Amino acid sequence: MNIKQATRLDYFNTGVFTALNEEKARLQKEGKKLYNLFIGTPDFTPPAHVIKALTEAAQDPENWKYSLTESEELLTAVCDYYQERFNTDITPDMITAVNGSQEGMGHIGMALCDPGDVVLLPDPGYPAFEAGAYFGQATICYYPLIKEYGFMPRLDLLDEEILKKTKYMVVSYPSNPVGAAASKEVYEELIQYANKYGFIILNDNAYSDIIFDGKQGFSFLSLEGADKVGAEFFSLSKSFNVTGARISFLIGNKAIVNAMKLLRSQYDFGMFTPIQKAAIAALRGPRDTVDEQCREYQRRRDVLCQGLMKYGWEIPENDGTMFVWAPLPKGYTDSNEFCKLLVNTTGVLGTPGVSFGPRGEGYIRFALVLPAEELVEVAEVIGKSGILNNT
Ligand SMILES: Cc1ncc(COP(=O)(O)O)c(C=O)c1O
């Protein structure tokens, strides 16, 4: 039987990644040393007390049943964490668990949008934002993140008609891929826009714990009026290196959270109880590993950017996230072509900027997922390869 996938899936083009993966597999087979800075999976480990909580809970057969919902204990732990970490009051009815922010973001359009609604997304931006809007049958519009404006949203440059039709806007700082961090003032201005034009703000706060040079991460919900207009995805993935456990929450405005709960009740039976226990352990446990790894990410950023600078590749230092957003070296304009050339010449795998949207063209993203010593090597391998002398 010839089985054809749904036409809606034609929208998703995995071509670039497939090509790079094939290149990677071929080079690996040839025995070439590869430096994989492609995917944002931390190489750090989860804290020991988190692993212990999960494994202990997994010994109890009761914990293998459908959990159906979040336990009181987990919801209270999230509320207490928000109070201690972000000085922000939230209540259990403002929270729903999602199976990772990726899943939440990928589905939220179905909970909020009707056909014809506009969803406003950053360009460049994290691809799941677009998937969510697309599945919600929304019309996708972009607000550009432009270097000259510090990669901040400039809604004053958008057509007012777009703002009037906008159902929700996705904001995410520190930003993947551009690495910029936003001040509270930037968000406060967006809240004013949201009130003026009647749209929702969804903040993706994946990197509040990976922020550099003395800047401080914060919650969108700590801002005046934020819970009237929006909600945020709060993920434990990157802070606690639990990416595979899929622990994240949508927190904020009750109408938004309730719409998401209703949608999710149709396809999900709740977070696995041992994972809930692990989440509680992470939220209630010491934060020294979180702070230590933030310092290590900063060290990696310094080593990579400064190492490449020595060979003439000037890369602005990012404010946060586990990514460096590098303008292509002189003489190159096509990020796909450059990534292929880079991996073939040096074994260094990066992500083509254009895969995050048209405004990402002209950039390559490096994930800081190798120890600093190896990043020193990466800079040297690239610098000595001759690839930077393309003028
Ligand atoms: C901006 C952003 N949001 C969400 C995610 C995924 O988070 P989670 O593991 O909670 O699905 C990532 C992962 O790289 C990300 O960069």
CATH class of the largest domain: Alpha Beta
Counting DSSP E segments of at least 2 residues, the number of strands comes to 12
Helix/sheet category: alpha/beta
Count of folded domains: 2
List keywords for this structure.
seven-stranded mixed sheet; globular; 12 strands; Aspartate Aminotransferase, domain 2; binds pyridoxal-5'-phosphate; 14 helices; Aspartate Aminotransferase, domain 1; alpha/beta; 391 residues
Describe the structure.
The chain is α/β, with parallel strands linked by helices and 391 residues long. Helices cover 41% and strands 14% of the residues. It has two domains: 7-45 and 288-385, Aspartate Aminotransferase, domain 1 (Alpha-Beta Complex); 48-284, Aspartate Aminotransferase, domain 2 (3-Layer(aba) Sandwich), CATH 3.40.640.10. The strands form three sheets. It has a seven-stranded mixed β-sheet, with helices on both faces. The chain has a three-stranded antiparallel β-sheet with strand order 9-12-11, covered by helices on one side. The chain is globular, with a radius of gyration of 21 Å. 48% of the residues are buried. The model has no long low-confidence stretch (mean pLDDT 96). Bound molecules: pyridoxal-5'-phosphate. Pyridoxal-5'-phosphate is lined by residues 40, 100-102, 126, 172, 176, 204, 206, 235, 237, 243, 248.
Q: What is the gist of this entry?
A:
By secondary structure, the protein is α/β, with parallel strands linked by helices. It is 41% helix and 14% strand. The relative contact order is 0.17.
